[in-house]
Amino acid sequence: MAMDYTGFAAELRDLGDPLADEVVKELLDEGRINSVNNLFREIGAADSPIPGQTPGALREFFESTRAFPDWVEDSRLRDTAAFFRHHHMAASAMQATVGLVGTYLSPVGAYTLHSTHRLSHQPHRRLSQSTRIFMGMGDSDAFTEHSKLVPTCQKVRLVHAAIRELHRRSGEWDYEAMGMPVSQLYTAGAALVFSVGVLDGMENIGLTVDRDEAEGFMYAWAIVAHFLGVPDTYIHEAMSSHTRAADLWHEGREHEWASSEEGILLTRECIDLYESYMPPGLEGAVPAFLRQALSDRFADMVEVPTSAFDLGADAASVGASTLLGSPVGHNPVSDEVIGHLGKAVERVCREAFTAGQETEPQMADRIG
């Protein structure tokens, strides 16, 4: 019998990542976090050589966690490739907005994100680091031995471990109320938000996704969850199919999503940043887009402002979308918004880099 969300959460809420956690404890004890963050820039692909100066425990971690799991099937990856061929821009735009706000709707997740001082008040930097996985998933080599996505996931896995260990050392984390910091429930839940939540959002704004392609997108996130450290047992339990994942997440969302001060603040920063990239005539498009994709109920929890901008979601038509590049059921107005949001995601990453802000995932050495 499939596990319900209550059972799923009970098993994952207090579960960390022993392999990554032990590596990070050693790096923190030796004061090597900053030097290791510099090494991250030199590991660009799954088949990149590990720099010679890499500490032994870290070298072993990168080498032992870079292989694809034996359950990956080429036939399912063809559906993944088809999804990104047709929907890469839309998916990136959705993940960088609806997906991120979905993580902010988790009060524990929002509190954890806000507690990492390195990213406070630097939305370009925070969002550029957050979107590296989304942008990389559509690369032609993302799920090959030359993958750039795999080392990005390995680095994010270590970032999560650093947050767990720093909160443990602070003595201020309320384990009884919040469970393990960045627990496997948080990581698996984020994978569900960025997959099921994004597919839901696409449907809500009038984008049609073929069933096999939706399964391919779900499968991509199952693989990403593996590389982020979620045990395969729970990946198979939660993400074996889009239907199973959707059922589990829609149940879980009722337990996990709520209003919080941190979630409201992070959402406001996200909206303000992307609104700054919208051209004349699209003022108010970002909050309107979020409200349509999330529904008013959940948008209200993080105080997404109401907007006079009309997405015209009831005027959906079918035809060749010039912005999205494929024949899909679409709404011309929401297509235009998605097109500009997709370009904004690319600009956020580019401008963070050219402004000298670190766009690689980075471990923190203190909580602020």
Explain what you see.
Helix 2 packs across helix 9 and helix 12 (211-227) runs antiparallel to helix 13. Strands 1-2 form a two-stranded antiparallel sheet. It is 63% helix and 3% strand. It starts with a helix and ends in a 14-residue tail after the last helix. A hairpin with a 4-residue loop joins strand 1 (317-321) and strand 2. With 368 residues, it is an all-alpha fold. It has one domain (17-65, 72-354). The chain is built from 18 helices and two strands. It holds the Pfam family MPAB_Lcp_cat. GO terms for molecular function: oxidoreductase activity. Its EC number is 1.-.-.-.
What are the defining features of this structure?
18 helices; 368 residues; two-stranded antiparallel ribbon; EC 1.-.-.-; 2 strands; Lcp-like; oxidoreductase; mainly alpha; oxidoreductase activity
Brief digest:
Its EC number is 1.-.-.-. One of its GO terms (molecular function) is oxidoreductase activity. This protein has 368 residues and is an all-alpha fold.
Instruction: Tell me the overall shape.
Output: globular
Number of helices: 18
User: Termini separation (Å)?
Assistant: 43 Å
Main beta-sheet strand count, sense and barrel state: 2 strands, antiparallel
Q: Which sequence of SSEs, written as H and E, runs from N to C? A: HHHHHHHHHHHHHHHHHEEH
Kindly state the mean pLDDT as a whole number?
88
Q: Whole-number radius of gyration? A: 20 Å
Percentage of residues in helical conformation: 55-70%
Q: How much strand?
A: under 5%
Q: What is the strand tally?
A: 2
How are the strands of the biggest sheet laid out side by side?
1-2
Low-confidence stretches are 314-329
Structural class: mainly alpha
The structural domain count equals: 1
